[in-house]
Amino acid sequence: MAIVFPTPRRLGWRLNPVGLVAACVIAFWAVIAVIGPWITPHPPGEIVDYDFFGPLSAQFPMGTDYLGRDMLSRVFSGARYSVGISLAAVMIACTAGIVLGMSAAVIGGMTDTIISRLLDAISSIPSKLFGLVVVAAIGSSIPVLIAVLAVVYTPGSYRFARALAVNVATMDYVTVARARGEATIYLIRAEILPNILGPVLADMGLRFVFVVLLLSGLSFLGLGVQPPNADWGSLVRENMGGLSFGAPAVIMPSVAIATLTISVNLLIDNLPTRIRDRSE
């Protein structure tokens, strides 16, 4: 008996060419973040060219930096920090925000009020200012950066998830489940979450973009990933001296940030949300 696996077309998914290209770019950077340090043509910290801010060439496809290090190797190695830290932070922020938002919507009352006011207080602090103060006070390290980024974006994820969950919680099938005496955990897991999953996943993608940009901003200010490691924001900062020369060492990390964030936005805008009618 032949086994037929479902394809995107059978499931009614239609991903247009723009979304497909965006997905390929995201997949490329995801793969580079995992295997980048093992496929770099040169060690990221090794000086391989005596011509600083070297141009694009066959030997150095992204040029060289202010010390003569290969930029392709440094961009590939930096992908692990830019993508990895941002992904960890957005997973923590969105998981906490979604769980708290659904819980507040289902339980309501004083629980809802306390959680909402607490997270409103956090969200009232400008994100960059909060990150600068905390990182400057505690010191910059990867766990601190992940924690700061997660705290900054948890309130927004909470508000979005709560707004969706409040609407779903008023539906008849949730009322029937309450009347049956179902526990709060059941209501959240079986009735609320499946009906808000699509929008919250799209929101998670947008928050990933915000986290990448905030991390790059902190690194550009010298409070992000510290030497000898470097993410894309750090690469831009340390090569700013070559901006007046139009050096690839400044442009290439910026292009990496732009391609990742724009691709995530394009993929979210072109997500397949319509299911084909059964009669087709």
Automatic annotation (TrEMBL):
<feature type="transmembrane region" description="Helical">
    <location>
        <begin position="18"/>
        <end position="39"/>
    </location>
</feature>
<feature type="transmembrane region" description="Helical">
    <location>
        <begin position="129"/>
        <end position="154"/>
    </location>
</feature>
<keyword id="KW-0472">Membrane</keyword>
<keyword id="KW-0813">Transport</keyword>
<dbReference type="InterPro" id="IPR035906">
    <property type="entry name" value="MetI-like_sf"/>
</dbReference>
<keyword id="KW-1003">Cell membrane</keyword>
<comment type="similarity">
    <text>Belongs to the binding-protein-dependent transport system permease family.</text>
</comment>
<feature type="transmembrane region" description="Helical">
    <location>
        <begin position="81"/>
        <end position="108"/>
    </location>
</feature>
<feature type="domain" description="ABC transmembrane type-1">
    <location>
        <begin position="79"/>
        <end position="268"/>
    </location>
</feature>
<feature type="transmembrane region" description="Helical">
    <location>
        <begin position="200"/>
        <end position="225"/>
    </location>
</feature>
<keyword id="KW-0812">Transmembrane</keyword>
<dbReference type="Pfam" id="PF00528">
    <property type="entry name" value="BPD_transp_1"/>
</dbReference>
<protein>
    <submittedName>
        <fullName>ABC transporter permease</fullName>
    </submittedName>
</protein>
<dbReference type="InterPro" id="IPR000515">
    <property type="entry name" value="MetI-like"/>
</dbReference>
<dbReference type="InterPro" id="IPR050366">
    <property type="entry name" value="BP-dependent_transpt_permease"/>
</dbReference>
<feature type="transmembrane region" description="Helical">
    <location>
        <begin position="245"/>
        <end position="268"/>
    </location>
</feature>
<keyword id="KW-1133">Transmembrane helix</keyword>
